[in-house]
Every structure is written in structure tokens, then in C-alpha cells.
Automatic annotation (TrEMBL):
InterPro entries, A to Z: ADH-like_N (IPR013154), ER (IPR020843), GroES-like_sf (IPR011032), NAD(P)-bd_dom_sf (IPR036291), Zn-ADH-like_protein (IPR051397)
Coiled-coil parts of chain: none
Taxonomic classification: Bacteria, Bacillati, Actinomycetota, Actinomycetes, Kitasatosporales
A Pfam family this chain is assigned to: ADH_zinc_N_2
Organism: Streptomyces hiroshimensis
The protein's name in its UniProt record: Oxidoreductase
SUPFAM superfamilies recorded: GroES-like, NAD(P)-binding Rossmann-fold domains
Length: 319
């Protein structure tokens, strides 16, 4: 089979397409014929310098057909179509998926829609839930045109937010503005206009910030909160928040990690997953795909993510 690995850290140019044997599923694992792979910013960052032993393979959000099952597998069978998070060799013709991370794909749903909806949708849904939103509260979403961000904008609207503000980088800001307004955002703002007098242009401070960026954006994101507001950080981008900035406005910062929910509250994750499919079936949640590229174009997919110009999900199609 073909897979993508990297033998040194760096940019997209270090990705290599290689030939290797098709793996065998171990206990509790499914072997998929991979139909779609979601490209994510955390994976792109790992290639730049994630501290993994080299050479390293790339994990990812995968969707495909089960072609073999490992010992002890129940609830899944050969021929099922599933999606989930694969931690190694996700950029490949075949991938191994632990059943704990697997989710059935409903009939009639494409692999591309499945891989664009489920994992990013679960992250967006979980981050919003972590803020403990009340009906009618205002929400600001950073990285709003990203794979998770564009779903967070729609979920906030569908779940009762009173005002939805989409925050984006300056890259392709005009195209992102139209894209996000179409998805339900009331206002679109660039990161350099998050706080201060500029906030009046997008309705003023918000009750909730869902932040997928981190780093230097954390301080202006906290400044964009109204008194008593909550920032939910679910980024791999690091960064720090000054305690005084929280204290002076009685604001809160909350960390969210999907892996902890999957490990300790699987029933909650399943509830969110079913909610995502119901909203999708009702047409209230529409995953958007910026580009579908062949596996050998993995470097191009990473370039799109790093340039911050994508409108929605970037997907690799191994087949």
C-alpha cells in the first residue's frame, strides 16, 4: 500500500510517498480501505517539529470501508463504512482504526462528508458545551473558516446563540467573510480588530470565545469577552493568559480536549455524534470542503492549511 511519512522535520516539502505492506488489525482494531483523510492543523504542526521519533507517519481523521477486523472486535463487520481518528499511518491507502474511535457512517453519506463532519464536529460541539452556554448568549469563534471553526459557527447558531461573530486571519479575509456569513455568522472580524474601539463594529464584547488558535491571540480573545465571559481553549498552539486579565472582568478560561471525553465519557461523545448526524440530515449543519486532493498531493494539502486560506476542510482521497 501507499503511505505518507516524513524523515525530517520541516515544511510540506519533507513529506514522502512510500510503499509498504498492508497492516494486519490487532485486538480491537479495524482495517479500513481508506476513502478520505481529513488534514488538520495539529498534524501539520507536528511535521514542523512535533518531537516524534523519525521517520514518522501522520495520523488523521479517516473514513472508509472495513476490510478486516482484529481479535475481539464486536459491533463492526467487514463491509461496514466507518469514520474516526487514526493515530498512525492515516495518510495511506489502508489504515488501522481502534473501535473506540470508530463511528458508523449512515447510508448515503459520502466519505468526504463523514470525515469533514464527525471529528471536527465533535471538537466544535464539545468546545461549545464546555462553555456552558445559555440561550441567547453571544459567541465568537476564532479560526472560523477552518475545518472545526466553520462547524462551530453553524453549531452556535443551531443551538441557540443570540449573536455569532466569526474571527479570521487576514489571509483571504474577504472570501472568508462571504463564506462565513452564508453559514450564519452575524459579523466577521480579523484578529487585529478583536478588542478596543474596533469591537463596536461587530456588536461589542461577547459572552463566549471558542479559540482554536492560541498563541498571541489569547490576550485579544480574552479582551473580547464581556464581564463574566468564558474563553474555551482547544488549540494546540500554546500561549499564556495573564491572571489579571481574567480577574478584572471576572472572566474564565476553560481548556477542552476531545481525547478526555472519548476516554472518560464515551456516552456523551456518542450523544454529540448522534446530534451531529441529526443536524446534518436536517440541513442545519453543512460541512464544507475547500479541496479534495489525491494522496500524492499531501504536501499541497499542508501548504493550504499553513497558508490559512482554506474555507472549510481539506481532504485527501487515497483512491
Amino acid at each position: 500500500m501507499r503511505r505518507v511519512r516524513y524523515h525530517q522535520n520541516g515544511g510540506p516539502e519533507v513529506l514522502r510517498l512510500e510503499e509498504t505492506d498492508v497492516p494486519r488489525p490487532g485486538p480491537g482494531e479495524l482495517l479500513l480501505r481508506t476513502e478520505a483523510v481529513g488534514v488538520t492543523l495539529p498534524v501539520v504542526r507536528k511535521v514542523r517539529g512535533g518531537g516524534l521519533p523519525l521517520p514518522a507517519s501522520l495520523g488523521g481523521e479517516v473514513a472508509g470501508e472495513v476490510v478486516a477486523t482484529g481479535p475481539g472486535v464486536t459491533g463492526f463487520a467487514v463491509g461496514d463504512r466507518v469514520t474516526g481518528l487514526c493515530f498512525a499511518d492515516g495518510y495511506a491507502d489502508h489504515s488501522l482504526l481502534n473501535t473506540a474511535m470508530a463511528s458508523p457512517v449512515p447510508d448515503g453519506v459520502s466519505a468526504t462528508d463523514a470525515v469533514a463532519l464527525v471529528r471536527c464536529g465533535l471538537v466544535a460541539r464539545g468546545a461549545y458545551a464546555a462553555a456552558r452556554p445559555a440561550a441567547g448568549e453571544s459567541v465568537l469563534v476564532t479560526a472560523a473558516a477552518s475545518g472545526a471553526g466553520h462547524l462551530a459557527v453553524q453549531l452556535a447558531r443551531a443551538l441557540g446563540a443570540g449573536r455569532v461573530v466569526a474571527a479570521v486571519s487576514s489571509a483571504a479575509a474577504e472570501a472568508k467573510a462571504g463564506f462565513l456569513r452564508e453559514l450564519g455568522a452575524d459579523h466577521v472580524v480579523t484578529y487585529d480588530n478583536l478588542a478596543g474601539e474596533e469591537a463596536g463594529r461587530w456588536g461589542g464584547p461577547v459572552d463566549i470565545v471558542l479559540d482554536a488558535v492560541g498563541g498571541d491571540l489569547l490576550s485579544p480573545a480574552v479582551a473580547a469577552l464581556a464581564p463574566g465571559g468564558r474563553l474555551v481553549a482547544y488549540s494546540s498552539g500554546g500561549g499564556t493568559i495573564e491572571a489579571y486579565d481574567l480577574l478584572v472582568g471576572a472572566k474564565s478560561a476553560i481548556g477542552f480536549q476531545m481525547a478526555l471525553i472519548a476516554r472518560h465519557q464515551p456516552e456523551l461523545m456518542e450523544q454529540w455524534r448522534q446530534e451531529l448526524w441529526e443536524l446534518f440530515a436536517a440541513g442545519r449543519l453543512r460541512p464544507r470542503v475547500h479541496a479534495e486532493l489525491p494522496l500524492e498531493a499531501a504536501a499541497q494539502a499542508h501548504e493550504i492549511i499553513e497558508s490559512r486560506v482554506n474555507l472549510g476542510k481539506v481532504v485527501l482521497r487515497p483512491a
